[in-house]
Amino acid sequence: MHPLQCVLQVQRSLGWGPLASVSWLSLRMCRAHSSLSSTMCPSPERQEDGARKDFSSRLAAGPTFQHFLKSASAPQEKLSSEVEDPPPYLMMDELLGRQRKVYLETYGCQMNVNDTEIAWSILQKSGYLRTSNLQEADVILLVTCSIREKAEQTIWNRLHQLKALKTRRPRSRVPLRIGILGCMAERLKEEILNREKMVDILAGPDAYRDLPRLLAVAESGQQAANVLLSLDETYADVMPVQTSASATSAFVSIMRGCDNMCSYCIVPFTRGRERSRPIASILEEVKKLSEQGLKEVTLLGQNVNSFRDNSEVQFNSAVPTNLSRGFTTNYKTKQGGLRFAHLLDQVSRVDPEMRIRFTSPHPKDFPDEVLQLIHERDNICKQIHLPAQSGSSRVLEAMRRGYSREAYVELVHHIRESIPGVSLSSDFIAGFCGETEEDHVQTVSLLREVQYNMGFLFAYSMRQKTRAYHRLKDDVPEEVKLRRLEELITIFREEATKANQTSVGCTQLVLVEGAGLKLLGSSDSPASASQLSKRSATDLCGRNDGNLKVIFPDAEMEDVNNPGLRVRAQPGDYVLVKITSASSQTLRGHVLCRTTLRDSSAYC
Are the beta carbons of 295 and 355 closer than 8 angstroms? Predict the structure, then answer.
């Protein structure tokens, strides 16, 4: 086999793909040719012969099959002080950003927000600068979502806008590079590169460490991609860089991927199998955030409460997994490891003044030890996201959710008995495959029965690769989906308003986030972007324990810890607010005093 074919075959087998392979080979051949011609200007025949010899010597010094085996088998966790060697076909200086400016846009879920912080941490260490001005960017990276077709269409539309920006780029500046990161890159892969030639790089959710190399390849004018999913990548040694210096809260990723394989869901195919970070690395990150003065941490994962740390051998005994009563899994029951209850216990002990939240959980993973811990610890928020997806047992079975309506309702009652005053939120899908009007009516009745405080409702969007795509028929007409969705939204708002109005007259602890948003429309309807565009000069806003937004006038108040001192609330302060009115989305009230999380229990 020709040496070039051998290298291409090795790289393809390890997920590098032909684009990256051809890119570095072309880059090296061009440089070899340029170097020879600039020194002695030999004949074309001697140029070709010299270039071939130079290329052969570079190829001999390049990556071998053993190199890739070594890389693949190397342990994932590294000391943060370690400097990783560059790939054998790239010089160290080619991986440096040379202070080129990066503009990052984030779409989708909280995991994508955290992924943006991880990607920026990696690029920052390589010498890139960050900009919030699109016009001055040298690199534009979109962190994307694939959960629904509408999310992907948003990205296609954005790429059309950026195409004009790239076309108008002055030749006096370095070429503008555009990259697609995250789930859409993983799902569509080369389709993006073929459809939009102006896209320079693709990086899947497990390939952010490779961003400096991908951008170095793109500098040669070639497209570059790495969409290889990993069985162990958790970025445990990468400290995310917070995007806002004034932030009062942060996301901490504790696990990645999902093994549930619900029939409608694309996540297992875009983010891979479940794997959890070592608890030690999570605690280290939370401690650093506490030292920075942040007051709230949200533990993140696609299936966050199925967390299982297997990094410590002594805890890998065959201890069975406790599931919620009446729930099953789509996979063989896992055993051993440190579970979510242990992590939640340890994280809540880091800083008693730091609130702890977690999302997004699966209802099957709420054993009693988790519920008891939430009830006992003052700084673990009494708010649980409990995705139902449907109120029909028949549809739930088709979705492969692992529970019936009856089991779900029983869990709701058990949670409310275990955690008095708990706030519940949920997800619902309207118009899933085969959903009848009777199924829809059962979902409506579940919304009325449970009376959620918050909800996230969407019309079903079939995704390729999912089980539903291969085995079910998307047979509910679009107009029916939208009509059912509107009905669910209407019922949800009615019931959420009732649930939230029970807070009127109560005193609640609120973590101040900043200036309040002045609503220009009805306070009982979701505010559009235009309605939320004007910030109130006289109001502040924050979130209560149940994660509901609370708006209150910016006024002087007493500081409980400094009697006689009058203060105004600042972002990051805990204040007590007496609730005077409620809607389906917000609470309003007047501020009483500034306090601490520990002292607030005497008043709430």
Answer: yes
Which residue stretches of 338-391 are H helix? 340-350, 368-376
Look up residue 283 and give its amino acid: L
DSSP letters spanning 175-218: PPEEEEEEHHHHHHTHHHHHH-TT--EEE-TT-GGGHHHHHHHH
CA 279, 283, 285, 286 torsion-angle sign? positive
Is residue 575 a contact partner of residue 542, using CB atoms and an 8 Å limit? yes
For the packed helices 211-218 and 110-125, what is the interaxial angle rounded to 10 degrees? 70
Contact at 8 Å (CB) between 136 and 325?
Answer: no
Per 3-state DSSP, the chain is made up of helix, strand and coil in percentages (nearest 5) of 40, 20, 40
DSSP state of 375: H
CA distances from 348 to 33, 342, 492 (A): 61, 10, 32
Give per-residue pLDDT as tens, 219-273.
Answer: 888 999 999 999 999 999 999 987 676 789 999 999 999 999 999 999 999 999 9
Main-chain phi, psi angles of 423, to 5 degrees: -100, 130
Quick one: pLDDT at residue 51?
47
Neighbours of 306 (CB within 10 A): 23
For residue 219, give every residue at least 6 positions away whose Cβ sits within 8 Å of its Cβ, in sequence order, or none: 94, 177
Which of helix, strand or coil describes residue 283? helix
